[in-house]
């Protein structure tokens, strides 16, 4: 995409002056079309955004007539409108089009690039602007939220989402910590810091008294964070508190949140409202921060060896107490088992990959643990949508990906030239070291679409090579920029260390063992990129101390219409989708049909498997699906949830190719043991991770539940008990209702159907009442007098009597369809191409013969004619008989793609408002349950299991995990991460 013109000013101070004439980047056009603005290539449409709190019924936001590309989902346009449009709603100052926010951001970046000498010519600057615009409006990447909040507005031009603060062992420093943290929270961001410089409660003050210790000062900071709602919103602030494992107060720190969780349980049982956001939860401390213990290799080896470990005085460094390392490690794991805190950060690993050790050690991280750098620093983020780079042949377009990375990393570096910062110390460090955090989203969806299991060698190899290429291309561009506008100010004193870390990345890339053509192609380009990094860095130095992290990508992931966030696997196989013009659907994940075809399944098999997933939400016992392919469809939640070490191994595959770390939580079932958590923490250290956080299902009490909790539940129970005690008992007559058998007439209409299932032949005769409803069936399968024939006779009688006593046919259909046993397979029935068993076939056939369309539609059973009609018109229903059904909701939103070469065979359709969604004809789409408003709530409805996550304060829907926090699919709000 780009090339450099040599002759740049070496060592120039960042953001000051311009490189000499002739220096700068030559930008090649790759994505946009010459002579055509990216906006003019897109069909735009107007939409109304009305956001409602589903719990209260209150309209929390309304803006009508907003403008977005027609391929953007309703969810994406809603989130961008509510989160990123600037100006007072209802005034002329309010932005109302995606063009407005993209223009104000991109034009600011392009102008700053010109002003600071980044481009060779004005024409190159214009191409840069068009390319960046094209990538954004086509959802190939997104900047982090502060960019959309602030850039190009009258507000301070803050572009960073991640901050690290510093606190020393003095009251002035501690009070300054409270102040700086408060201002960061007020601006809508979060911060982390390490408290280990503060003297412990076991050490003396200069006055002779005993120090309070860091945990005591955490109380004040926690209260401040709970009071200053982040960004003026209702959600809590985001913060990370770290303490070194050799601090004398480490055991008190480890126990803080676990003991508070005990308090929450006791107060809840006493009738207080202890739900997150409840009136009584404010009495509980330490709930506004994530806690992490910074462990050393020395400590972890002591855990392995079963030896003791020294806790050191903060001022002198002398050992003042020795503890059993295994006992302390056990206490850490027990606390995490109780309340998910603390996590671990692996200090020696972090600092072994540190590019600036001559400036200072890395002691802390941002709230989500992906940004790890110097104290008083910040990082701006951007994430690419990996699924956009998947080619038609199911290989990853590595060359195009690298070109996008180079353009995006250029824009990210330019932003530091004009950015504002919450404190002068943070601003100075960021301008001197220019830390960037490029990353990606949709890894889980990409791997599934490629037919690769998330927890498989193939999946990990693909993730490793993509991450390596991303960081290699980023540092290559960083070295090129250093040759034009100079290396970062702190580079000279850290040059050898920085180049050593680059060689470590290159060596890690050389150890990757590729397993297939797709990852081999990516690895080849990554290898070349790292060779260029080493060569260019030796000559030019580097513009950026850091280049990459893997962030949660919560809100911006929805902006890009990503199925999966960050490095996460898919959340579930069935998704909740809003439709243009109102209504909602539940559809099977769009990557599943593609994955099945990649794995070699034919259309009939794909149809049967997808229909099964639509009903059950998982692939276990799906018809025709080979068990060795189950792993491809493993998800974060559900019947085939990934094992904890599957999460750890994926992080380990990507970690060696990141400047920073990874925001991700290792999910464990409620039944997980303390020993399992110990193993996760130990293996994370051995596998070279920089940080690990765990979450055991249902370990936290203080979060809102759909049925209310705490005091509300106790009040209801007390009221019921009171009513029962005050009401005088009455004697009532007991009425017994008995079913009445409705016999068939002596002469009735019947039909006989011959069928073949998996090569087995049979006959079914069905008889109807005078009103046409089914009243009896007879099944013949097997030779007369055989055991099978006798069982079929008995079964037929049982079903027939049930029908005559009023058991609805749809009840039998729902119970017996999808039963799986031999014989199974292809049938000779055009309406039912495959059957999982004879019972599955029989009751699908009965449904088609005797149930009305509306009932069959709710069961997902359609005739061949109806499926064909759906492909041609977007509706299963006959044209003269439209009702308030799934087809009515789908019809206005689906049309054949006339420009698609596959449109003639009706295998591809486009959903207006969805991102060029290709749907196999077998994908079951139907109205979502009225009680489901997000994919998390839909998963609960389908599987009957609870998703252990909080409710959104803004719209009241169930949130879902994203990295080490939660994000709301309904409105884009997060539980603390930007």
TrEMBL record:
Domain annotation Ribonucleotide reductase large subunit C-terminal: ranges: 160-695
InterPro entries: RdRp_reductase_class-2, RNR_2_N, RNR_lg_C, RNR_NrdJ/NrdZ, TSCPD_dom
One biological process term in Gene Ontology: DNA biosynthetic process
Keyword annotations: Cobalamin, Cobalt, Disulfide bond, DNA synthesis, Nucleotide-binding, Oxidoreductase
GO MF annotations in UniProt: cobalamin binding; cobalt ion binding; nucleotide binding; ribonucleoside-diphosphate reductase activity, thioredoxin disulfide as acceptor
Cofactor (UniProt): adenosylcob(III)alamin
Chain ranges of the TSCPD domain: 745-849
Region annotated Disordered, chain positions: 1-21
The protein's Enzyme Commission number: 1.17.4.1
Domain annotation Ribonucleotide reductase class II vitamin B12-dependent N-terminal: ranges: 48-139
One Pfam match: Ribonuc_red_lgC
Task of the protein: Catalyzes the reduction of ribonucleotides to deoxyribonucleotides. May function to provide a pool of deoxyribonucleotide precursors for DNA repair during oxygen limitation and/or for immediate growth after restoration of oxygen.
Family: Belongs to the ribonucleoside diphosphate reductase class-2 family.
Record protein name field: Vitamin B12-dependent ribonucleotide reductase
The organism's taxonomic lineage, starting at the top: Bacteria, Bacillati, Actinomycetota, Actinomycetes, Propionibacteriales
